């Protein structure tokens, strides 16, 4: 996720914030170790005065004595209750635990055969071309192996590709969607369940946390 460690501008809104959307994320500045004094929260709205794409606010984790213990990490979805007494930071009074869904129950008696899972990781193009030949070769291998589940890890349109800045045939998002659609149609025809894991190196999209390194 996006990170920051220092904020020098007051935050918008009223002096009390009952809850912060769970779409917000805790942040800390890149290359600086996360510390109680530099934790901040970044939202999805742009802060016009800062020139950044998001609006971030410093979190005062020592504001309330009731908050005796906590655990935060960079990029973590965070739901909190706090107050804004000065307009410069958010005094955290409570950190809510976001519920995690339990995995579905599995009846092993109904599992009559082995589960075949195939996993592949991008990028799926050569460094000197945008031709997705590697992706199509993978799909031919999938057709031959016929796994029950195909898990594809990004990136599909790699931000670190040497020629990505000069690509102009379509938008990055359209290029990404065309590649994903090709895989999806292929798997649908073969009755294979497709799982796509996002990558922070997708050039068209904001980083999503957590993702594989």
TrEMBL record:
Subcellular location: Nucleus
One Gene Ontology CC term in the entry: alpha DNA polymerase:primase complex
Keyword Nucleus: yes
GO annotation, biological process: DNA replication initiation
UniProt xrefs under Pfam families: DNA_pol_E_B (PF04042)
Keyword Nucleus among UniProt keywords: yes
Membership in a protein family: Belongs to the DNA polymerase alpha subunit B family.
PANTHER family membership: DNA POLYMERASE 2 ALPHA 70 KDA SUBUNIT, DNA POLYMERASE ALPHA SUBUNIT B
Protein name stated in the entry: DNA polymerase alpha subunit B
Species name: Schistosoma japonicum (Blood fluke)
């Amino acid at each position: 996720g996006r990170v920051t460690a220092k904020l020098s501008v007051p935050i918008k809104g009223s002096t009390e914030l009952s809850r912060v959307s769970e779409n917000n994320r805790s942040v800390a500045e890149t290359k600086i170790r996360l510390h109680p004094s530099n934790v901040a929260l970044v939202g999805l709205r742009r802060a016009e005065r800062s020139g950044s794409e998001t609006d971030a606010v410093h979190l005062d984790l020592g504001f309330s004595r009731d908050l005796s213990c906590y655990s935060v990490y960079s990029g973590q979805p965070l739901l909190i209750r706090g107050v804004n007494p000065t307009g410069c930071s958010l005094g955290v009074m409570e950190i809510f635990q976001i519920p995690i869904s339990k995995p579905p129950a599995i009846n092993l008696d109904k599992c009559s055969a082995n589960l075949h899972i195939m996993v592949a990781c991008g990028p799926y193009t050569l460094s000197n071309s945008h031709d997705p030949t590697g992706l199509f070769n993978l799909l031919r291998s999938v057709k031959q192996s016929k796994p029950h589940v195909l898990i594809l890890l990004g990136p599909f349109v790699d931000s670190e590709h040497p020629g990505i800045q000069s690509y102009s045939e379509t938008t990055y998002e359209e290029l990404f969607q065309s590649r994903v659609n090709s895989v999806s149609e292929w798997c649908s025809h073969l009755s294979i369940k497709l799982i796509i894991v996002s990558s922070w190196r997708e050039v068209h999209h904001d980083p999503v946390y957590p993702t594989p390194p």
